[in-house]
Design brief:
This protein is of the alpha/beta class and 298 residues long. Helices cover 35% and strands 22% of the residues. The strands form three sheets. The protein has a six-stranded mixed sheet with strand order 9-6-10-13-11-12, with helices on both faces. Strands 1-2-3-4-5 form a five-stranded antiparallel sheet. It binds zinc ion (ZN).
Length: 298
């Protein structure tokens, strides 16, 4: 789709920053910067990844229709995300548990499953204070199947699903830090890692709210960057089981690297985990505002 048409559709202005190379869309309090030939772009200063690179075969820059309609459009203008779903019950999903420790830092003797549970216990009262009912997919150090996590949220009638994780890398452990956020890959698109997967052609439950997933993912991602001042690993798409099976808007956050010694030491501090929890609660507040503005515009 022609980006000038896309810009007009959303009431934003298109400006070339480097003719034929980089352009900006600005309006409705949002700003997006794209680069021709690249999947990576910036939305309100945060990194994000398109399903397909911006192309410019001739004089017109093109964005894929799926990216335009299900990802960037809703982030520019939430009312383009479709009817605003309710927001009363929030499911928080602490990654891993029981025999599944998740990522571990053996030297500092800390595992992901312990930190994720601590994180949701910090987030719960913050979200309750905002007026939501909060359900947890586990409340103790117990193994829970991925599909069961989505079922627990479903049974509770959750309107929002947030899965909390911590990251690790094999190579570059001394270097890589920061946060990244995943939302479900839209149907017929490649995930950010570009590995073709068997689920791509299916309409998964997690695709019911592609537009709202984008809004939610951006709100959580941006709030973490603003509040935590950490390196930005990007807003990405993946067909991760809990996202694929979620029947409400959902996101998975990776809030830091257990492979990095200094970042792990930071994550081991309760005050820092509280800061992350507060950032995520701020993200939910901004998502709620986006729902509200979309309800008014329809
Ligand atoms: Zn994990």
């Amino acid at each position: 789709m022609d980006v000038t048409v896309f810009a007009r559709q959303h009431g934003v202005t298109l400006q070339w920053l480097e003719p034929g190379k980089r352009f900006q869309l600005k309006g409705n309090g949002a700003s997006v910067e794209f680069e021709v030939g690249s999947r990576e772009f910036a939305i309100n200063g945060a990194r994000a990844f398109l399903g397909e690179a911006i192309r410019m075969p001739e004089k017109k820059a093109l964005i894929s229709r799926i990216d335009a309609e299900r990802f960037v459009g809703p982030m520019l203008r939430p009312s383009a995300a479709g009817p605003a779903p309710a927001l009363r019950i929030i499911a928080l999903d602490p990654g891993h548990g029981g025999r599944d420790s998740g990522k571990v830092n053996p030297r500092l003797k800390v595992s992901e499953k312990t930190l994720t549970l601590d994180m949701v216990n910090r987030m719960k009262p913050l979200l309750e204070k905002q007026g939501y009912r909060v359900v947890l997919t586990r409340t103790e150090d117990r193994f829970v199947e991925l599909a069961e996590r989505a079922e627990i949220a479903d049974r509770a009638g959750a309107d929002l699903f947030i899965s909390v994780h911590f990251n690790s890398v094999e190579s570059g452990a001394e270097r890589v830090t920061g946060v990244e956020v995943f939302t479900m890959t839209p149907q017929h698109q490649l995930s950010t890692d570009q590995n073709p997967d068997s689920q791509a052609s299916k309409a998964n439950p997690g695709n019911l709210y592609d537009g709202w997933n984008a809004v939610l993912g951006h709100c959580l991602h941006k709030a973490m960057l603003d509040d935590m001042k950490v390196p930005d690993r990007g807003l990405k798409h993946g067909r991760l089981a809990v996202l694929r099976l979620s029947s409400c808007p959902a996101a998975l956050v990776e809030a830091g690297y257990l492979s990095h010694p200094d970042e792990t030491r930071k994550l081991m501090k309760p005050a820092y985990r509280q800061q992350i929890a507060e950032a995520l609660a701020d993200g939910v507040r901004n998502y709620a505002r986006a729902l509200e503005s979309a309800r008014k515009k329809r």
